[in-house]
Write a structure and sequence with these properties.
- The chain is α+β, with helices and mostly antiparallel strands.
- The chain contains 8 helices and 4 strands, in the order αααββαααββαα.
- A hairpin with a 6-residue loop joins β3 and β4.
- The radius of gyration is 38 Å and the shape is elongated.
């Protein structure tokens, strides 16, 4: 082999190696970028594709389609072979009468049509359940996403509170060392400092849990360490969910169940009318060697089983479906009104914290801390105002989370998948 060909093969392999590794590196980089910055639309898209419960519901919908297809089909005909008048001695087989034929069970008119209709309603019901599962999945993903955002916010606030406590501890040390404050103030300040550090550890643990909860909903355990991008909304938007839709999947499922129960009752009323089995065959009579044929009819006699129990069961199931459908309407209206009120109250509380409570708490703490440095206030006043300011900041994050979850619940009731 020439040097040129060897060089060509080596170069080709080297380029292939570089290409494969570059591709792997690009995929890894893209994965890392996604893990480092997951947006809410990305999270919803992943969940709609990968969420295992949603995939299971999608599979049940496909199974219902197969059941509906099968429900409209007749049973297969039966091949029948018979040998009659077979002498046990003598000629045997050659002296017997041999017949071959087929038989078919013919359903009573209307039964198969009702079964096909019942199968079609089963498909509609599975589709409504799939639509509902989609809405619930999007709602849960939004809530989990907001939990991560809120947890990241609490970690940030917790870190700021630790720094504030450390700065205050440094100021206490400075005053004690200067003889302007007693030695026990160092010990007194050590308690809130350690508590701030423990609170920060709790927030970090909650963030760890929230991220993995989100990853579970997404069906992607590899995103358990992913951070999210975005921010919690500070105002509610009732316009995005103006009213409870008439075609909400829960309502549609309830109505389909009523229709399904009505069809089942009509089908049960036909059970008393038997199906007819029709058969025909042909063969040869051994003695005369003549061709022969036969026609058979079979009809079950409804002497012992009149299907009265099935009809009673079907009537009860219809009453249950109607009651459950009415209950669904009442439940949806109740949940809608509660969600609207929850969003309204949360919006007002967030505005109150943002416009009044937080500015006053921060201003009070700033003034007291300056006054402590100047010897105007005791340490207890500083610790109390610091605790009040910290509680206000933490409560604000919680109220932001409540507002965003209420918004997600209202959007799910409004049938919004975004």
């Amino acid at each position: 082999m020439s040097h040129h060909s060897i060089f060509g093969i080596t170069s080709f392999r080297f380029l292939a190696f570089i290409t494969r590794n570059a591709l792997a590196l690009s995929i890894l980089t893209a994965g890392c970028a996604q893990a480092a910055a997951l947006t809410l639309p990305d999270a919803i898209r992943l969940a709609l594709e990968k969420n295992p419960e949603l995939r299971a519901t999608r599979g049940r919908s496909e199974a219902a389609s197969g059941q509906a297809d099968q429900a409209g089909r007749w049973s297969n005909p039966e091949l029948q072979l018979s040998v009659e008048d077979w002498p046990l001695r003598g000629a045997g087989w050659s002296a017997s009468k041999r017949l071959a034929g087929v038989s078919q069970t013919v359903p009573f008119p209307g039964k198969k049509r009702l079964e096909r209709d019942m199968g079609a309603t089963g498909v509609k019901l599975s589709q409504a359940e799939l639509d509902l599962r989609r809405l619930e999945t999007v709602r849960d993903v939004k809530a989990a996403f907001y939990q991560v955002l809120a947890a990241e916010g609490l970690v940030k606030v917790g870190g700021d509170l630790v720094k504030t406590a450390e700065n205050l501890a440094a100021a206490v040390d400075k005053r004690v060392d200067a003889g302007a404050a007693p030695e026990q103030e160092k010990l007194r300040m050590a308690v809130p400092l350690e508590k701030a550090r423990m609170d920060l550890a709790d927030f970090q643990r909650d963030l760890f849990t929230a991220r993995r909860t989100l990853a579970t909903l997404l069906g992607r355990s590899d995103l358990g360490d992913a951070t999210v991008t975005g921010s919690l909304a500070e105002t509610g938007d009732l316009a995005r969910a103006a009213k409870l839709p008439e075609d909400h999947p829960s309502r549609m499922a309830g109505q389909v169940r009523v229709t399904q129960a009505e069809l089942a009752l009509r089908r049960a009323r036909l059970d008393i009318y038997p199906d007819v089995t029709v058969g025909m065959g042909a063969g040869r009579e051994a003695i005369t060697n003549n061709s022969i044929g036969e026609i058979r009819f079979g009809v079950p006699l409804p002497l012992f089983d009149t299907s009265s129990g099935k009809r009673r069961e079907a009537r009860a199931n219809l009453a249950v479906a109607q009651a459950e459908s009415a209950a669904v309407d009442l439940r949806l209206n109740r949940e809608w009104n509660i969600a609207v009120e929850r969003l309204r109250v949360a919006s007002e509380q967030v505005r109150g914290y943002r416009e009044r409570i937080l500015p006053k708490a921060n201003e009070a703490f700033g003034r007291v801390q300056i006054g402590y440095d100047e010897g105007k206030f005791p340490l207890l006043d500083v610790l109390e105002t610091r605790r009040t300011a910290a509680e206000a900041r933490l409560a604000y994050q919680q109220k932001l989370l409540e507002l965003n979850i209420a918004q997600a619940e209202l959007e799910a009731l409004a049938g919004q998948l975004k």
